[in-house]
Amino acid sequence: MNKLGTISAVALIASASAVFAEEVRVYNWSDYIDESLLEKFEQETGIELIYDVFDSNEVLETKLLAGGSGYDVVVPSATFLQRQIQAGAFQKLDISQLPNHGNLWSDIQARTEPYDPGGEYSVNYMWGTTGIGFNIGKVTEILGEDAPLDSWDLVFDPANMEKLAECGVYFLDAPTEMIPAALNYIGEDPDSHDPEVIAKAEAVFEAVRPYIRKFHSSEYINALANGDICVAVGWSGDVFLAQFRASEAENGHEIDYAIPNEGAQMWFDQLAIPADAPNPEGAHKFINFILNAENAAAATNYVWYASGNEAAQEFIDDEILEYPAVYPSEDTLNKLYITTPYPPRVQRTVTRLWTTIKSGT
Amino acid sequence: MNFSRKALIGIPYVWLLVLFLVPFLIVFKISLSDYAISIPPYTPTLDTTNGWWAGIRELWAGWDFENFVFLTQDDLYWKAYLSSLKIAVIATLLTLLVGFPIAYGMASAPPEWRTSLLMLVILPFWTSFLIRVYAWIGILSNEGFLNQFLMWTGITSEPLVILNTDWAVYIGIVYTYLPFMVLPIYSSLEKLDESLIEAALDLGCTRIGAFWSVTIHLAKPGVIAGSFLVFIPTLGEFVIPSLLGGSKTLMIGKVLWEEFFSNRDWPVAAAVAVILLMILIVPIVLFQQNQQKQREAAK
């Protein structure tokens, strides 16, 4: 490049940054927003938005606890949020800077109360369930038309799993979701923090372990979509993503998701502001932007997770609002359970138990 | 010795001090701490509110070897170290088995080809390591290219389950680390004087005998260097087993990840890392000695 070119390039960069007087850095889950909203935010507020993504709570937590993450808004799940609040990772929200706060859904606020009492540190972004995704054609071909698609029997009954093994079953590699599911299946309290009760989950997994192909928390999306596997314990919206990818590819695989009738875990992803956020004012502007009913609806219409925003329901597609796997009926909702974080010693027991289950060691 | 010469010699030492010793001491320090729900997630940290001296004394009092004792109490850690060693040894041998003929072929090729062949070995490095490992998922999966090809040719009727087994891990490691094996062997074979083999043959050696006592013997430094370059990073490998391996693939890199991210227990994670480093020091020292011997032999 000649000198003139260099100078004009520098001038261009300088002018580009001059358009935005301030910036907001957001750290959210991957595939978790309608990206056109990002541009809309910049246009409405004149704030430059730097949007990064992560794919596990653990990665986010490690950044937060190391300090100086540089992010203004982060989106941890509620169980993780609770411990992070304890560690002093967040600042309290200033409700006066959030005129759209009233749009929040009080039912969901009530359910997140145990994690963040009074909603002082966070607001709900979206919520969902941990259930079962399956390939309808393959599963009914193997187990017959009366396959228990809406029951944990599908993945915890060795008789079913033995037959499903050849077409492939993935489990989430998330002990804090899988162990409560197994406890719930055998009629124990899924949120038990008693190591003796938790140990009972081992037998449930032991019985089906030989038939599980892999424990992984994101590969099942593509594996389900391209027919590599036929059943996965997974997160609602992820399975819908697999469903969408399969129909895009027109490969003949029909994927669906069910909340098992024995109950399933309900989880919440919360918008929060780190204690050391460089631009807390901009962070409030971003949260307020997301709390806007139409914006929240746009996000849900895109990712197919239920929104924690009640006012948004007016703008959410009927197809989604009436889909019981996304917006469960009152009946199902009553069967959903929540879990709270384990104390450090119990967490170690849980992780160790999970290693034993996975590797046999 | 003048100042500039001293400074020049000092650079590698400063490099080692800043990029190896200081980080190691930080990790070692964390391994002596205890878990806490705070930022950062361990205690004690240096608190100088009562002055530096009191802070340092408090820090010293809070340190102990509890985490190292803990590692000996649970058989998981020993099994993981041993299993990593086993995988690293097998993978190194497999890489040698594949890499040696390639290096030999390259060294025997006409000189005008060699640069292009060398380029071909290095070329994969131009693409991200992560993407190349991901590509293997597409090749090895049940509905992947390999199985589709095998079933199309009729060699197998059922898809071979390779992905998520130890075999997939070996394939991934051999593929990824192959250049580290090929390049040192190639560089020792390239220097090999053809007339030595002719001499061996003239003196009554068989072809195989000459290959063994001349080629293999002279390639030994390259084989040793290549083997260490593969073995050392493989021992702590995390990405390949977590992407290609199954849940049964037990490796210390994965255990370390779990301590750090799932248990959020930085002190135990740091203790695991310190022991891994101590296990690695043995082959690294052997490697250094080998290099030293070679350099002396070259003089």
TrEMBL record, chain A:
Primary location: periplasm
Q: What processes does the entry annotate via GO biological process terms?
A: polyamine transport
Task: Please indicate which superkingdom the organism of origin belongs to.
Answer: Bacteria
Signal peptide limits: 1-21
The compartments listed are: Periplasm
A molecular-function term among this protein's GO annotations: polyamine binding
Record's keyword annotation contains rRNA-binding: no
One of the Pfam families matching this protein, by short name: SBP_bac_8
User: What does this chain do?
Assistant: Required for the activity of the bacterial periplasmic transport system of putrescine.
Q: What is this protein called?
A: Putrescine-binding periplasmic protein
The species is: Actibacterium pelagium
Automatic annotation (TrEMBL), chain B:
Give the ABC transmembrane type-1 domain ranges.
81-287
Main localisation = membrane
Its localization reads:
Cell membrane
Membrane topology according to the record: Multi-pass membrane protein
Q: Record's family? A: Belongs to the binding-protein-dependent transport system permease family. CysTW subfamily.
| CDD domains named in the record | TM_PBP2 (cd06261)
Q: Which residues cross the membrane?
A: 12-32, 85-105, 117-137, 167-186, 266-287
Recite the UniProt keywords alphabetically: Cell membrane, Membrane, Transmembrane, Transmembrane helix, Transport
Per the record, what is one GO cellular component? plasma membrane
Per the record, the GO terms for biological process are: transmembrane transport
Q: Which PANTHER family match?
A: INNER MEMBRANE ABC TRANSPORTER PERMEASE PROTEIN YDCU-RELATED-RELATED, PUTRESCINE TRANSPORT SYSTEM PERMEASE PROTEIN POTH
Q: What protein am I looking at?
A: Putrescine/spermidine ABC transporter permease
InterPro entries linked to this entry:
MetI-like, MetI-like_sf
Q: Which organism is it from?
A: Actibacterium pelagium
